[in-house]
Amino acid sequence: MQSTVTPYKNQTNSKKEQVAEMFNNIAPKYDFLNQMLSLGIHKGWRKKAIDLLREKKPKMVLDIATGTGDFAIEAVKLNPEKIIGVDISEGMLKLGIEKVNKLNLQNKIELKLGDSEKLPFSNNSFDAITVGFGVRNFENLEKGIADIYRVLNQDGMLVVLEFSKPTAFPIKQVYNFYFRYITPFVGKLFSKDSSAYTYLPESVNAFPAGNAFLKVLQQAGFKETKDVPLTFGIASIYVAKK
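The structure assignment produced for this chain is given below.
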């Protein structure tokens, strides 16, 4: 089971509540810092993740931990009938809805509050489900994956994009230094919530990446699971079928 890492060490409320508070706090600077800290590489990762769903031609797509909606917007390229994005942060969703409206995609994309462990959907509702940099924030990883399995159609596909842990020298050393020192420094400089960017490397370190996460998927019932490493193992795309 995933070890519990929370954004605010001095708070006693649940991880879920803390994560929602954290994203509400950093929402105004989130996209800017994402672009700066990843040097824009995350856009290519997102495109690769969505491209893996192209052959599936999903009609109904669910994007969990949708944040400001970038994954949901990228999924429009799959030409589905409907994309629903859910997130526990009202602040992030507000910005996401503004993006969707600006692109005139409100008839295609619906963004709403939703708990990844208690998804407000019926069984077998979606042909494809995406999660971009969100599973490590689940309060109970196994419960969240089980609920994803529940709402996914038979033969449906799950695609998860998440940070990983590179092992090769010198990428591992550079990555650890960047995440441990540069990321928190830049986050504190531009965000009013310095804890958020200390939590980021801690949550990545606590997340059961690689084969360990594939086992979590398999235990939930998923099949044909695979891990697709990206950019020297800095991130991974996990693919699974129901």
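Interim note for the steering committee: The beta strands are 60-64, 82-87, 109-113, 126-132, 152-163, 223-230, 235-241. Residues 15-38 form the longest helix (24 residues).
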